[in-house]
Amino acid sequence: MSTKKNTELEEFEPNIIGFLCSWCSYAGADLAGTSRIQYPPNVKIIKVMCSGRVNPMYIINAFQQGADGVLVSGCHPGDCHYTHGNYLARRRVATMKKLLEFLGIEPERVRMTWVSAAEGRKYADVVREVTEDIKKLGPMTKIRREKEW
Amino acid sequence: MKIGVYVCECGSNIASTVDVEDLVEQAKEFPYVEVSRVYKYVCSDPGQVLIKQDIEEKQLDRIVVAACSPRMHEPTFRAVLEDMGLNPYVLEIVNIREQVSWVHDDKSKGTAKAASLLKGAVLRASLMHPLERKKVGVTHNALVIGGGIAGIQASLDLADMGFDTTLVEKSATIGGKMSQLDKTFPTLDCSQCILSPKMVDVNRHPNIDLLALSEVVEVDGYVGNFKVKIKKNPSYVLADKCTLCDDCVPVCPVIEHDEYNQGFSPRRAIYIPYPQAVPASYLIDPNSCLGIDPLICSKCKDVCGPEAIDFDMKPEIIEKEVGAIIVATGYEPYPIENIGEYGYGTIPDVISGLDFERIVSASGPTDGTIRRPSDGKIPKTVVFVHCAGSRDPSKHLPYCSKVCCMYATKHALQYKHLVHDGTAINFFIDIRTAGKDYEEFYQRAAEEDQVIYIRGKVSEVFQDGDKILVKGADTLTGETVELHADLVVLATGLMPSAGTKEIASLLNLSVGMNGFIREAHPKLKPVDTAISGVFVAGTATGPKDIPDAVSSASGAASRAAGILAQDELEIEGTVAQVDEDLCRGCGLCAEACPYSAIEINAINKYGHALRVAFVNEALCKGCGSCAAACLNGAINQLGYTDSQILALIGALGEE
Asked: ipTM of this complex > 0.85?
């Protein structure tokens, strides 16, 4: 029984949507590329100008539209290109996690990190960790909705 | 709607790990796609011509390019669209190089990820609308913050180009750290002799308004149109009346440490920082003067013939409008008292490199004879410790400050020139002589002037009688070294000045891990910052020697002139937009806005007074924080609208 479960877990490749701010984290992801650091392909990036742009609705929507996990990544505290958008994002994500818990969804499916433009290696590490974490949680099925188009 | 999709092979950079042919075939099935092509280098001229031909022949009105990061070629492809009469904002770039082909070597997984991103991009492109780039006027004046050699050079360059320039300096004189140096490497020419003519030029230049003892306290506005508030602190001496006669100094009863001489000599509460100071005027130190607070002494005022002293002078706020700002706020030496094992602050004859500059200087406290602080004797053995507090990630500065090897070598050489029978010993980790004629300078010190170089770190420094016991290791012989020195000079590194940190936070400039201001691009935009219209010169971005600081200052001045010479500038179209019918005037967006770009105004709608949000597009920087805060979805970020992002999420969520 347990063996079967393990095989199932190994086969599951999570689909994760990453919202990365344009100035720090997206540039950090680019640096991981220019440095040719290999990492799992499970996180697909949506570039936003600032992590403060990430409406909590997007997180719910990502789960509804098929994502198993969500990553929000911005500039380090104090380093936000727009002074404090990353603090807004942190507050919104923290609140959203509580709401997810209330809905019976594992709050660990949402992860917020700080990755600077100089941290290509850290971005690769974050992707590896998030992928592993979501793999352990298994597929998200609770609030998935059928495609409308 | 007709969308053109262009997939770039980037030679083999993309094609080797992403199946580009498969991507092109898949894209043909995506909605609205009229044409889908692959090309070896889409960014090349023939690649651009390919897109242009398709736009013309197939009447495309949205373009999707799957290639390298938009940070590389978004401007290139926007220009292609503009050339063909399309709006530059109906372009979407899919990053399949930095974020796919270079990081995933599994071709099938990489291709699947790229296809998903490409589909999202096509869906997003179908929801894009042309955006307008508004035009704003430009104020043809500049502000330079910091009056060290970099700020001086930037101000002179801008003023020579004909731009009115305000130079703001926090201390009483311009000149910065360079004014404290005795000689400069590798030419050994006198620092003051090459600096002071430039300082005088600043003072005389008709296009430069020099504000010493002043601080920038507020900056508002945006590129081309900054509004700056400068606080000018009182000097208590009227510069236009002061004749520099020095009558006030002998009567002043207050004795203070002279900062210019690193505290090795005294000054009075009324003083001139140094004879060549610019502006050339005495000033009163309000912290120690007995005539300002408390009001018990007026000896200087009594003897001042031209009545230049005014105890009632108050700080004033000066407002300026400028089109561009250059930050040249410089460095501070690393506080060497942090390194307990080297005994700085407890052993009087352990001094810093900057201390040595004053002690060796002809205008310094010892009139150019090298004497040690404790007993005034001429030291016969001097140890110079390189990398004191540098290249030590566990405890001190992790980085190399670039100039210390050279200035410690210069100090050793200067010492040997002044004390012929003396011994100069340099402890080093590596000797870094990257600069024109620097290696030759080091060879000259070691060979012609018999400066001794020991490769190894000093571990401990003790007082031993009237000598200093220096313990270290010679890592070339593997032996421990113990020797007695009369003077120990610690070659300390450079760290960002307090002013650099203050100005960075005032202007919202991002700083790197070591606290220095981060350039817009470390290689290709080394004097730009992430904020348009704000440039950076000198050591505010990191340690530099004088020639590098000067050339970065000239670079910053010419980049600033690129803005100042324009009559109007275009601002980005990706600003926030309010739907007045959905807005309920709650003000959550205004609270979230970091730039105070949103106001809640009352408008008359259908005969009712309604409160709605209003966006000042010139102030809006397009971060989108307001759009995420709005509960009604009434405010949106153009170019990153909710519908576009939700479409992207939909495409990426599909398995």
From this structure: yes
